[in-house]
Structures are given as C-alpha cells and as structure tokens.
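[09:14] KT: can someone run the structure on this one? pasting the chain below
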Amino acid sequence: MKGHIRERSAGRWAIILDVHNGATGKRRRKWHSFAGTKRRAQIECARLVSELQNGAPIESSRLTVAAYLNQWLEHIKPQVSSKTFERYSSIVRANLKPALGTIPLAKLQPMQVSAAYGSARARLAPRTVHHMHRVLSQALKQAVRWRMLPRNPCDDCEPPKIERREMKVWDVSTMVAALELARPWRVHIPAA
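[09:31] RB: done, structure tokens below
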C-alpha cells in the first residue's frame, strides 16, 4: 500500500492512495483533498497509509450516525430481550438521533459526543444521559468491530456522574408509630 500527493492549486493538495484488493488483485485509487502546506500534506498522506495498513476502513462512507444506529438496532434486536430493545430504541430515537444523527459516522469526534452529553444534561436526568452514553458506546464498539470506524469516539468521553443518595429508612420508634397509626385500617395486616 502506498500513496502520494499532487498539488491542485496553491495550498490545496490531492492525496492519492493506491489500494489493492486482495480477492481480485485489482488496484484502486482513493483520493482525499487536503488544504495546507506540502509538508502537512505529506504527513497526512503517511497517516492515511498507516491507517489503511492497520485495517482502518478505506471508504469514507456517507453513512450518518442516525442510519448506522438503525442498522445497529436491527443487528442487536435478536440478541437482547424485547424490553431492552424497546429501551435502546427509545434512547436512540429520542436522544441520540436528534443530537448526533446528521453527522457522518466516519467523522464523529469525541468533542461532538461530549457536546451532545452536555446539551442533554440541561434537559435530562444524569442517569438518562449515562444510559445514552452506554447505548452509544455499545453501538460504536460494534462499528469498530465491523471496521466502519478505526476507534470508538466514546472511549474519550466521560458520562455524567450519577450522585448516589443515601437511603433513608425508618428507625424502630418511627416504624412502631406508623404501625399503630395503621391499626384501624385494613392495610395494617399486610404492613405488619
């Protein structure tokens, strides 16, 4: 696998990657546009060649996050219970698609994911935002396995902290008083 650069105009470069298909033996060229200095274009070319050699996807797919999440839901449906699938679908439909759905999957960045969590914190409970993180992370982990992403952007994001509240329980004297108050009612027998 190799690549080279070609100047298109002042400060604009074409990065051309030669990609060989192992099954058919045919060579394909993958073009990328780059704006910057010649040295930066060479560095970007070397990075792209390295990513391709390490198994990164060669297509910069136009698949959006919303379309990918639909595919992932279909994939996960037979693997989880119907209640879990319903909850995943609800989180994807109500929270993830409005926040991240229009972004191309290949261009999803940790900063965008963190921004989505930040805006969700303003209107949702921290536990719901935490569930958003878990669902998105699981979906993108599958995208990495399918070689649609080189790495999971959620790995670099922190979900909101969930505050653990101390459980409040009645002491013995409060429990005795409550049972005494319930004695004249029919609820006393199940409560006692």
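[09:33] KT: thanks! The mean pLDDT is 86.
[09:34] RB: yep, looked fine to me
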